[in-house]
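Lab notebook, bench 4. We co-purified these components, and the gel suggests they stay together. Before we commit to crystallization screens, I want a quick structural picture of the whole thing.
Request: model the full complex, all chains together.
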Amino acid sequence: MDVTPILEELNDAQRQAVTAPAEPALIIAGAGSGKTRVLVHRAAWLIDVEGVSPHSLLAVTFTNKAAAEMRHRIEELLKVPVQHLWIGTFHGLAHRMLRRHWREAKLPQGFQIIDSDDQLRLIKRLLKNLEVDDSRWVPKEIQWFINAQKDEGLRPQHLDDDNDPNRRQMISLYQSYEEICQRGGLVDFAELLLRAHELLRDNDELLAHYRRRFQHLLVDEFQDTNAIQYAWLRLLAGGDGVPFVVGDDDQSIYRWRGARVEHIHQFQKDFPGTRVVKLEQNYRSTATILNAANAVIANNASRLGKNLWTEGAEGEPIKVYSAYNERDEADFVIGRLRDWIDQGNLRADSAILYRSNAQSRVLEEGLINARIPYRVYGGLRFFERMEIKDALAYLRLISNRDDDSSFERIVNKPTRGIGARTLEMMRAYARANACSMWRAGGAIASDDLNGRAANAVNAFMSLIERMARETQGLELHDKVDHVIHLSGLAEFFKKEKGEKGETRVENLAELVSAAKSFEPDPAEDMPPLDEFLAHAALEAGEGQADAWEDCVQLMTMHSAKGLEFPLVFICGMEDGLFPHQRSIADPHGLEEERRLCYVGITRAKQTLYITHAEQRRLHGMDNFSHPSRFIAEIPAEHVEEVRPRVQVSRPLRSAAAPRRRQSATASGNELGIRLGQHVRHKKFGDGVILNCEGQGAHARVEVNFESAGTKWLVLSYANLELM
DNA sequence: TACTATTTAATTTTT
DNA sequence: TTAAATAGTA
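Here is the predicted assembly.
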C-alpha cells in the first residue's frame, strides 16, 4: 500500500493526527493550520490504509458547504466516489435518521421541516389562538426560549416553573407549540436534533445498530456543538465508536446560539485517554498577523492554550487608521482598494469585515460611487424568498394536508375571498376539535359558513385536491411548474408593480429549474417531492448567487469564519461597536468578542487594515467613541498608524470636544437614573430600575414593569419619565 | 382589501 | 436612520 499521497504534504502534527490509532482523539486546530485537510486525510487514511469501510464512517459538519467540500476532497484524494460514507450536517444526518425510522421517532411519514421564519409565524399564530397578549409575550422571545430548551435537550415536561408565573407561561406555550407541530407533522431545526437524540436513546436496537455501524466519527468545528449535538455524538460513539473531533476553542463565536466550548473539556472527561494533538503551524498568514492574533487572544482566560507560528515571512505591519467618521473610514478603505486593484490584484482577493450588518451601507455607497464591484454576504437566501416559500407551501400542502403552517400561508394568497372572519372560525373549530385547519375547513364549509365564504373555502380545497390529482405521477419539475401556475401565484406576482414582481416571477421560474436539476438520493427511498422540500428547508441556497464576477467581498466577521483573503479590512473597531455594547459588560461576552476579533485578524494572509472612526452615526444619531480595546492589545511593534495623505477636511466647528460633553450628559447617572428609581414608560407603564449599563446613546437600563415584566431599554429611545 | 401613516426598537446566523 | 410591524384610511 502506497501511503504517500495521503501523508505527503503533511507536517508532523498533522501526520500524527491523521495516523492516530483507533482511539478517541481531540485535534486542536488553530486558524489556518489545515483543519479540513486533517479531517479529509484522516478519512482517507482510515479507508485506504486501515481498511475501514466507508460504510462505517460518519463525518459531521455544521454547514452544507463544509460537508460538500469534505466529500469532494475525500473523493479527490482517494480517486473513487464514496457513496456509502455518511457525510453531512448534524441536521442533515438527524433528518436522514428520522426519515428512516419515522415510526420509532413517532412522526408521521410525510413530516415536514420548518425553518425559523415558519417557526416564528407559527408561534405568532399560536399566541393569537390562545389569546395571549403578544406585547407581553414577545413571539421572538418565545421562539428563543423554545429553541434554547430544545438545544439543551429539554422537553416541556422536564422544565420546572420555579413558581415563576412568567416561566410557567413560557413552558405552557412551549407545550402548546409542540402539540401544534406534532399535529401538523412539523419539525423545526432544533427538533430534528432533539428527536434524533431521543430516537437513539429510546430504541435499544436502533442504537445498537448504528453503534455497530459507525466505528469512526469525524466531527468538524467541534467547539460549535451545542448540548444536544454533543449528547447525540456521545450516544453514537457509545462504547466502541472512535470519535475524532477537530476544533479550535479560540474560534468559538456562537455561544449565543447554544454552542458550548466547554465540550472540548467535557470530551476529555467523557473519553478518558483521549489523544490530544495541537496544530499550531499556520500556512495562511504572515508572522506579524499571527503575532498580533496571538497577543490579542492571550487576554482571554480559560483557554486551552495555543500559539500560532509560521515558517513564512514576517510581512508588513498591520495598518491602523483613525477615521474622522464612517464616511471617512469608507473613503480610506476605498482608496486602499483602488491601489490594490491598480496594482493588478483581484478584487475577490480582498474583503471588508465588520461586526454588524448595518455597517455595510456606508461602505456600499462608497463602493458604488467608486464603481468597484462588490458582493455582500448574508441576506435573503433563495429558498427563503417570499415567492419561493409560497410556492413551496402549496407543494407541502399537496404532500401533507394537515400542514397548518403552509395552509395559513397560502389559503388566501392570491386572494380568493377567504378573509379574517372565515379564518377565525376555522381556527376556532380546529382548536376545539384538535384538528388541522384543512379538516376544520371541510367541516365548517358544509354547515357553519354562509354561502359565499363556504364557496371560497370549498374552491380552495378543491384547488389543492385538483393540483394533487393532476400532478400525480408527473416529474418533480413539472409538478412545481404546474403548481406555480394553477395556484395563481405566477399571475399574482406578475401583477406586482416594479422590478420586484419581475424578479419574483423569475425566481419562480428558477425554482422550476432547481427542481429539474435536483437529484433525489436513491438510498433515501422517499417521494422525490418530500425530499425536495426537505432539501429546500435544510439547504436554503445561496444568498446572491450572482455569476462569478471579480468582486470585493463584504461580510460580518461571523460569516468570514473559515475564509481567507490576501487583503483584509476590519472596520468599525470601536468600543461599543466591537466589542459590541451588549457584550461588553459580561466577561463571557467580552471574551467571545475577543475570539471574534481573533477570527477577524486571522482571515488576513498578507495585508491587514484596521480602521475605527472617532464619530459614527448609529441609528441616526452621532456618537463619539474610542478605539476598540482590542487595538491596544496588539503589540505596538506590529502596528503602523496610517495618517491620511491629504488632510481630511474636518468641519470647522471642532466638533469633538463640545459634543463629547453633550453625549456624556446623556449617560445614565446624569439623567438621574439610579437603581431603584421609579419610572414610567409610555407603553409599558410604571416600573423600577433594576440595572443599568453603557454610556451615551448606548446606555441601557433594565426596568421591572408592574404589568409588562422586566425589559432592557435603550435610554435614549425609551423616553422614561422619572417618578 | 390594499395602500399609507405611524410607531417601535436597534448584534452576530446556520440549520 | 431605517426596516418592520401595526394602525388607520380609502
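Chain A has five domains: 4-100+194-281, 112-184, 318-381+544-642, 384-531, 652-723. Worth comparing against the SEC data before the next meeting. Residues 18 and 42 of chain A are 4 Å apart (CA to CA).
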